[in-house]
Amino acid sequence: MKSALVLPYAFSTDSMGFTMGAGGLLKGYGQEQLLLGATAFGSFDDAVGLFLGMWDYSPSWAQRFFISAQGMVGHYPKQRAYSATSYKPGTDRPGSNDSDKDDFAEESGYDNWTDFKLEYVLPIGSAPKDGLFHYKLKGGMLQSAPVGGNVWNPIESGVTNLLLRQFNRYRSFETDGGDIDVDIS
Fold first, then answer.
1. Chain-wide mean pLDDT for the chain?
2. Which pTM was predicted?
């Protein structure tokens, strides 16, 4: 079953101001389990962002492998970091357990990230023959038996998968003294 959704939205926050955007989803195009999504937004305070995502793509040569990828690029006028490049010895470090909730740096800058996943559904438990599960619904209620739950043993019941994941994040803070870059891999 194919489905599509387009959803406009608006919200206001301290860090982005009044923001408007639109998002969309496509499900079941190309492959029944494949989900594609995107959103773009902008604010009157110069925040802008774009998100793209793909979940559960299965290569034609492997029925048990699923690939998901998502990422976002954005520029924000007031991003916060609960840390500091320097602090006074003997005081609580910003972001530590005893630091003050208002102890943060706030600057404009970029916050971009990517998240890649490769999953393999093991041929055990409830998935001995196929990596996909088909549920039967009637009026929105589950009519087929649920996956797992009969026995607390992954060899007999439930779904077990192996997951390989890579997450990266790049943030920058645009200060009067120059840009400060923060990377996480």
1. 88
2. 0.82
